[in-house]
Write a structure and sequence with these properties.
The protein is α/β, with parallel strands linked by helices. The chain is 28% helix and 19% strand.
Length: 145
């Protein structure tokens, strides 16, 4: 066995086949790709108007106390049935179906009392229902999305 280092040739890297493949791919892309030029793109940017007043929808605020009593627009409702609530919501909305019903319930109010208000609003044809939340400062805020 001969363990002496011999004369080795340096490895040769042939780039010509690699260049040929790149040229074929480039020609293929140029032939199959279509190019078009847009002269102008129409972009509609939003516009703000400081003078415009914010349009608030009509709101009916239903408050539910911890004892299960209802108040619609700060008027105490006598009776707690769904039919009574339906009639009171219909009158408070003045037969307008685009009114937003805001439910503001006490923390100790039962879930059934909130469900009764939602059922009465559905029967009155009022589909926009939201819930009021309490902010950390003690101010009530609407929980609208």
């Amino acid at each position: 066995m001969n363990f002496r280092p011999g004369n080795r040739d340096e490895p040769e890297i042939n780039l010509i086949p690699f260049i040929d493949i790149l040229l074929v791919v480039l020609i293929f892309l140029m032939l199959t790709t279509t190019y078009s030029k847009f002269t102008e793109l129409q972009v509609n940017l939003p516009v703000a108007d400081a003078q415009a007043q914010r349009v608030n929808p009509k709101e009916v605020i239903v408050a539910i106390g911890s004892d299960g009593r209802y108040s619609i627009n700060k008027e105490i409702l006598h009776g707690s049935g769904v039919e009574t609530l339906t009639l009171a919501l219909t009158q408070a909305s003045q037969y307008d179906r685009d009114v937003v019903v805001i439910i503001s319930a006490d923390a100790a109010a039962t879930h059934q009392s909130v469900i009764n208000v939602m059922d009465a609003a559905r029967r009155a044809g009022l589909v926009q229902i939201t819930f009021a939340t309490q902010q950390s400062g003690g101010k009530a805020a609407s929980g609208r999305p």
